[in-house]
Every structure is written in structure tokens, then in C-alpha cells.
Design brief:
CATH architecture: 2-Layer Sandwich
Helix content: 25-40%
Radius of gyration: 15 Å
Order of helices and strands: HEEEEHEHEE
Shape: globular
Largest sheet: 5 strands, mixed
CATH superfamily: RutC-like
Strand content: 25-35%
Number of strands: 7
Strand order of the largest sheet: 1-2-7-5-6
Structural class: alpha+beta
């Protein structure tokens, strides 16, 4: 049976990818009571980084938003796996933490992370509205432009 959130993803043209195992000593998702914490996700597709480089020199804000949206798709894939395939168990998105690999003079970190925030609201409606951080940094693993982690409330 396809759930409401799976149906919404299909209408948005989003197919959640297969999840991959972590590359280090951590887990991709951890449940604590009614919350699930999703480890930082990067803009990878098909097991390969789709974007590499910095905002402000290699990518525009719009390209950064696309990278952030892909991070959010990967977050949803990890979440679905952690919920045994049932995204309808999501009560709400609590928080996104966004890290933007940017040049020192880049100032639009929040606009970049909007790519992920907007997707959460598209998928979950009002329950997708969340607290957030958008932080600039000088580098990220494998030189990806964005990494995002998340906390969800679940039933």
C-alpha cells in the first residue's frame, strides 16, 4: 500500500534512492523516543557526489539550492528506511542543520538551505515547517557544497 507521503513524493516526481552504508563509525539514523535524528547527508546521487565545489566561486545560489534539495531527498530516504518504509509516521520536521561550503565573502547561506527547507514543506505541508541553522564553512567532506542533518518527530 502506498502511503500519503509516498503519493506526495510521486506527484512531485521524486523517487527516493536506495540508502548507502556510512563511510565511518556512525549510524545514518538514530531514534530517541518520538524523535529520529538523521546524520548529515550530502548531495550524492547513484552513490556518487553530484556536486563538488564552493558556493560563491563554483556554484550560484540556485545551484546550491538544487544541491540542498538533493541532500533533503537523501534525508528522506534515510528516514524512510529508519521508519521501515512508512513515512506517514512522520508527525513533523523539528530541525534542519545546514552547512554550506562557501567562499569567505559569500553571504547567502540561508538562501541555499532553502532548497531543503522548501522540499520539507512541499512534502509534509505545515508539519514540514521547522527550526533551522544555515552555517557557512570553509570546507566539507569530499568538497561537497552542502551537507544537511535533520531531526523528525515520529509516531
Amino acid at each position: 500500500m502506498v502511503g500519503k507521503i509516498d503519493d506526495k513524493l510521486a506527484k512531485l516526481g521524486i523517487v527516493l534512492p536506495a540508502t548507502t552504508a556510512p563511510l565511518a563509525n556512525y549510524v545514518p539514523a538514530r531514534r530517541l523516543g518520538g524523535q529520529i535524528y538523521i546524520s548529515g547527508q550530502v548531495p550524492a546521487e547513484g552513490g556518487k557526489d553530484k556536486f563538488t565545489g564552493k558556493l560563491g566561486s563554483d556554484f550560484s545560489v540556485e545551484e546550491g539550492q538544487a544541491a540542498a534539495r538533493l541532500c533533503a531527498v537523501n534525508i528522506l530516504a534515510q528516514l524512510k528506511q529508519a521508519l521501515d518504509g512508512d513515512l506517514d509516521r512522520v508527525v513533523g520536521v523539528i530541525r534542519l542543520g545546514g552547512f554550506v561550503n562557501a567562499e569567505p565573502d559569500f553571504k547567502d547561506h540561508p538562501k541555499v538551505i532553502n532548497g531543503a527547507s522548501d522540499l520539507m514543506v512541499e512534502v509534509f505541508g505545515e508539519a514540514g515547517r521547522h527550526a533551522r541553522a544555515a552555517v557557512g564553512c570553509y570546507s566539507l567532506p569530499r568538497n561537497v557544497p552542502v551537507e544537511i542533518d535533520a531531526i523528525f518527530e515520529v509516531s
